[in-house]
Design brief:
With about 90 residues, this protein is an alpha/beta fold. It has helices at about 1-25, 25-30; strands at about 35-40, 45, 50, 55, 60, 65-70, 75-80, 85-90. It has a four-stranded mixed sheet with strand order 2-5-7-8, with no helix packed on it. Strands 1-4 form a two-stranded parallel sheet. Strand 7 and strand 8 (about 85-90) form a beta hairpin. Residues about 5-20 have low confidence and may be disordered.
Length: about 90
């Protein structure tokens, strides 16, 4: 049982150690980071993914589970994977 606990501990610890070494470089993180802008009154559905650098306009609606890869204009709906922009809502 003692060896089993040690193995579980190592399996739990190794992925975090590898990840922390990868993210210690500030130049790497700064080069890939881009802000996501969300407009006023925008609705984002459950489990929607918004990729880096995407702008969502004012009063836009993002469907549940959508993967937003491009900008969404104001007062439009975006649904699907990848998200497609539908006609502006009235």
């Amino acid at each position: 049982m003692k060896h089993f606990r040690q193995i579980l501990f190592l399996l739990f610890l190794i992925p975090f150690a590898a990840f922390s070494q990868w993210t210690d470089d500030p130049n790497l993180c700064a080069a890939t980071a881009r802000p996501v802008r969300i407009g006023r009154g925008a609705f984002i559905g459950a489990r929607a993914l918004i990729l880096k650098g995407v702008t969502i306009g004012d009063r836009a609606l993002i469907g549940a589970g959508a993967v937003v890869t491009k900008d969404v204009p104001a007062r439009c709906r975006a649904v699907g994977n990848p998200a497609r922009v539908l006609e502006p809502e009235s």
